[in-house]
Each structure stands twice: as C-alpha cells, then as structure tokens.
Amino acid sequence: MSVGAPRGLASSGQKPITEILHPLSAAEESLSPHLNLTSPCSLSSQEAGLTNGTPVETSSPASVSSLFNRLQLDDDLDADARDPFVSTETRDLFVTVDDPKKHVSTMETYITYRVSTKTTRVEFDLPEYCLRRRYQDFDWLRTKLEDSQPTHLIPPLPEKFVMKGVVDRFSEEFVETRMKALDKFLKRVADHPVLSFNPHLNAFLSAKDLNKRQGLALLTKVGESVKQVAGGYKLRARPAEFSAMGDYLDTFSQKLGTIDRIAQRILKEQTEYLTELREYGTVYSSWAGSEDELRRPLEGVAGCVTTCCGSLEDLSENVSQDFLPVLREYVLYIDSMKNVLRKRDQSQAEYECRLEAAVLRKQEDRTPVPVEVEKCQDKVECFNADLKADWERWQSNKRQDFKQLLTGMADKNINHYEKCQAAWESLITLLQDKQTEDKTNETN
Asked: Whose CA is closest to 230, among 129, 110, 352?
C-alpha cells in the first residue's frame, strides 16, 4: 500500500521536511558520511513507514509561565477557525464510532462498536467502510501507532480496566462514555497529518480481520538498542524548550488533578442533595392531600421542587458524562506526552554517548565519525521536529476543547438556575392569585 505524503495537507505554516530518510523507519539506507548537526529527518518514500510532513522550525515557549498562558481562552472565536490544525478544508478521511452492541458467548461477554469510514484517499480500495471493533482492537491500533511512530504523540485511549463492583462496564452510561472517548481517539488519529497515513490505521479501518500478530520487529529492536546503549549514560541537560514543556505538563497535571477531585466531591454532594430534595418534594405532595385550603400552594411547592430536581439531575449528568471525561482524557494525554519526552531524552542520551566515544577514538587514531553517530544525531533531530509540531497541535486542540467545555458548563449552569428561578416565580404568581381569590371570597 502506498503511503506517500498527502497533497494539500494542513501544516503549521513552517517548511515541511521532505526527501530525506527517516532514521526510525524500517529503511536501512546509508546516511551522508559527514556529521551535520542541523539536518532534520524524514521517512523514505519507498518504505511502508509514513512520510514525515511535520515542521522543522516550529517554535516552543521558553518558560513555564509562557507555556501555561496557552490555557487562557481567547475570546476571538474566528481565531481558532483559522487555525491550520483544525481546518477541514484539506480533510479527506472521516471516521465515526457509534452504535455499541453487547455480545454474549460461552467464553466471554464484550461490547463492539461500529466504525464508519468515508475517504477519497487512494490508499483505500473503497470510499466507504463499516466494521465493528471492540476495545482491544483500539488498544492494538494505539500500540502499533506507538511502536511505528515513536517520535509522535499518540492520542490516549480511555482506561481499559475498571474496578469490579464499583463501575459496571456493561452499564449504558459507562458504554456511552467509552464510545465517545473511542470516537474522539479515532478522530484525533484520522486528523493527524502523519498518523492518518499509517498502514495500521488503514488495516483497522478497512480489514475485516486484524492480523494482531504482525508487528514492526525492527522498530522494537531499535527501541531496545537505545535503552541498552544509553542505559548507563546520564543526559547532560534537556534543552530549555523541552524542559519548559516538562515543567508545564507537571503544573497542568496538578491543576487538572485538583479540579477533578473537587468536581468528583461536588458531584457526590449533588447526588446526595438530589436524594434529599426528592424526599422533600414528596412531603409537600403528601401534605397537599390532607389540606384542601392549602392544596394548590402545597402542590405548587412540590412542583417547584420536582422541577429543580430534574434540572439538577441534568446538571450532574453533564458533569459526569461531559466534564469529567475531558479532564481524564487530558490527564492521560499528559502521560502520553511525558512518554514521548522520555523517548526523546533516551535518543539524545544515546547520541551524546556515541558522540563522546567517537571523539575519543578520533583523538587516538584519527578515525572518521562513524555512521551510527550520524544516525543517532538524526534521530534526535527527528524527535525534536516531530515533538514540537505535535506540541503545537496538542495546544491548539486543548484550547478548542477547553473553550467548548467551559462554554458548555456555563450554559448548563445558566439553564439550571433559570429553570429553578422560573419555577419559584410561578409559585409566587400562584400564591398571589390564591390570596386575591381568598379576599374575593371574604368580600362576597
């Protein structure tokens, strides 16, 4: 299957990397004999790996404060519409995950999801596909993407394991929440300018049966060799821009963790309050049955409480199904980004270790710099370029997601309080009408 670079692909506005070998692909072509410390990396167009179309010179903030300012929301909605990372003008691959179904067999019980694909890409034999996949298939895809594209940030999946007896993994609420998370994961992969051309994604979207035993053994060996060579070497210093990324992720993780804990506590208190509120309304309904003179006001109070209960239930549902899953996704995203940073550090450590050894040998017998050192240097350049590009893309997605999340939260709260206010205002009108009616009866 051809996986050449897509035409008209959305970019960050920087110059793409083209026509030079990607050092982490399965290609074994030789590199140039001289050491070039500024040369980036890319994929060979003849290999089954992906063409690296990511920018080289994408800038990153140099301080934690400047990085954390990215979280602040921009009031200009049109600005994000012009963001190249969210542009739909060049999209030619559309995926959807929906229609969960429960399957029961003698061996196991599991849920499958419908995966629908529409595309105009020549790499696909058909323009549309509709297959069913279970969670472990999505997990297989993510593992393959992580193995074959180690320099890129792979979107996270929802957690696989749940606590038995605490969460029913076959409940409608849990299945719906997981389906939304799987849909978001697949959409993020399909929108990525590199990951979307990965052959494993093609197989996931189009093949009836996935060959889960097939892997990229060479890439696995490459990763193992990095650990072996750099295992006893301590990295000199992570570049300032990547250190700032790591510090930002630590701070962002702490903020999200605090918000998540407080939101969980609020949700629990709302659930307990909702139980008391329902009982409170029932008392007024029962009371109204034994008081003819107060029946209408008491039924009005019971109706107001019922309206408030329904509104609060909707508000709590929004927190549990929309707000908390986004927080959890970004906590997992942070773990994924830290994992890529660690891989980048390992690659840099391997390069520094081999370079020091080559310099010592050159001082002793004046031998030329080995090709392995040049490959290691290119690996570092590749990690730097891909990580910077994915960082910018992640920041853009984060701005969009949190803008939508906080706007939705504000709308839900406004709607909740407006419903409660309208209910109690209607009770005041009822009481005033009752008072007028009583005065009229007294006059007559």
From this structure: 352
111: nearest Cα among 96, 132, 130 = 132
CA dist 145 to 66, 97, 150, 199, 357, Å?
31, 19, 8, 9, 33
Residue 110 three-state SS: strand
Of 141, 56, 75, nearest to 388 (Cα)?
Answer: 56
Strand segments, DSSP code E, in 171-312 are none
CB 392 within 8 A of CB 153: no
Burial tier of 293 (Cβ tally within 10 Å: 0-12, 13-18, 19+) = exposed
Q: Residue 23 corresponds to which amino acid?
A: P
Find, among 302, 55, 341, the residue nearest to 193 by Cα: 55
Which residues are 94's β-sheet partners?
118
Letter string b/e over residues 353-370, b meaning 16 or more CB atoms within 10 A of that residue's CB: bbbeebeeeeeeeeeebb
Could you give the CA distance from residue 407 to residue 402 in angstroms, rounded to a whole number? 8
- The 10s digit of each residue's pLDDT in 85-138 is 545 457 889 999 999 999 998 888 899 999 999 999 999 999 999 999 999 999
H/E segment holding residue 309: helix 295-318
**d(C-alpha 182, C-alpha 186), whole Å:** 6
Residues 6+ positions from 135 with CB-CB distance below 8 Å: 110, 111, 157, 160, 178, 182
**The pLDDT of residue 442:** 67
Determine the Cα–Cα distance for residues 324 and 391; give it in Å rounded to an integer.
23
In angstroms, the CA 394 to CA 80 distance is 13
State how far the Cα of 10 lies from the Cα of 84, in Å rounded to an integer: 6
Considering the entire predicted model, what is its pTM? 0.72
What's the pLDDT tens digit per position in 164-193? 444 677 888 889 999 999 999 999 999 999
Angle between helices 240-288 and 295-318 (to 10 degrees): 160
Q: Using alpha carbons only, how large is the chain's radius of gyration in Å?
A: 29
**d(Cα 386, Cα 152) in Å, to the nearest integer?**
6
If you write DSSP's letter for every residue of 329-392 in order, what string do you get? HHHHHHHHHHHHHHHHHHHHHHHHHHHHHHHHHHHHH-PPPPHHHHHHHHHHHHHHHHHHHHHH
Cα distances (Å, whole numbers) of residue 252 to 61, 181, 246: 15, 21, 10
